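Repro:
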Amino acid sequence: MFEKINLLIPFGNFVQNKSLQNFLFLALIQSSTILISIISMPLLLQSIGAEQFGWVNLSFSVIIVFNILVGFGFNLSAPREVAINQSNKAELSQLVSNVFSAKILLAIFSTALILIGAYGLNLFQGYQSVLVFSVFILFSEATFPLWFFQGMEKMKLISIANLFSKLLYLLGIVLFIRNPEQSKWVNFILGVSGFGINILLLIYIHYALDIKFYKPRFQQLFTLLRNTKLLLLSNLATHFSINGALIVLSFFASATTLGLFSLAERISMVLRLFPSMVIHSIFPNASKLLKEDLSAFISFLKKVSFVALTIGLAVSLVVFGLAPLIIQLFSKAELVESISYLRVLAFIPFLACLNILNVVIFLVKGQNNLMFKSSWMMGLFMVSNSIVLTSQYGAIGLCFAMLSTEIVVFLICCILNWMYNRPLILAILKTGKRNTS
């Protein structure tokens, strides 16, 4: 079935370079997620209301934190191992079996923690049922084989499959979500849609690509988890710094305020994906240029950074100016508080673009330790700053905490680059002075 779809949609043939194809399809996956998120927001607000919308988003935020645990850094480490063993079916089968086994066990472990927290410790008051029904997203993450298709350089198939799963989710919302009492099914539909498509992908991997699934070898699983723990910790800190705002706010605000804030926060977080997409798109070419031609690397990195900053600033200014219209479009109501939140959060994409150059340097030089240091310093600042400002000024204080976090992590990365990559930074600055003179 997937091969027929592959033939019917030959748009990957327009670009012959496999690496470029991979990044275009990664962009398609990300953009489809963004588009469905944008389309679903007004539908959900009209059907379940602002209060339940806040609980659904809070549950999703909690689940995504556990999703980082389920992913355990495999999405960064596993594609390389798959690429190395592309022609070795035995090694590839063992690797695939180990990674999927580890992720499924982590999903089961995460689900157990959530159930114990919800019903054993009586946590998550107000949204227990919504959160419990959201655990299927964990199994969708555990079975999502993006890392495998990245390593195999077959991104067309999974990008199409991902789009289908998002369309199924949107169809489920339209057909089954009609009133606030049905809010617990929103994230459930998202998880089940993804999980169902992923099962079809696993069947394709087994039969079409001749990949066998073995019983897990626990010694190998332990080694695999130990080798990726640094990436896990870095991903957890980065994610919470960027997406943990709703969790912090839930301790200080009502459900209604949570819903009003989550609308603005969801829009700003969608826009914040732009710098991340830029980084992932230019990383391979930047790595090659650094190895072959330093001046070409510097020129390329500076041009991309300038273009990204220009686009980021333009987007931020447009969102700031059109905030009332944007909120009206999504909510079909004049939510004054959401407009105020969005006008502050509108500048997050621009501030995040400031750090593109720093992060790309860390990546091309393979400095995972610096990524780890910067992400955890960012996380600690975000937690302390957001708690202080939210407790004093409420949701608007949290908005400014999120802005200041972007500025602080930029300064942290600048300092780390100056300490560990000073010759390269000096070369970049020297090139800039020469160009201006």
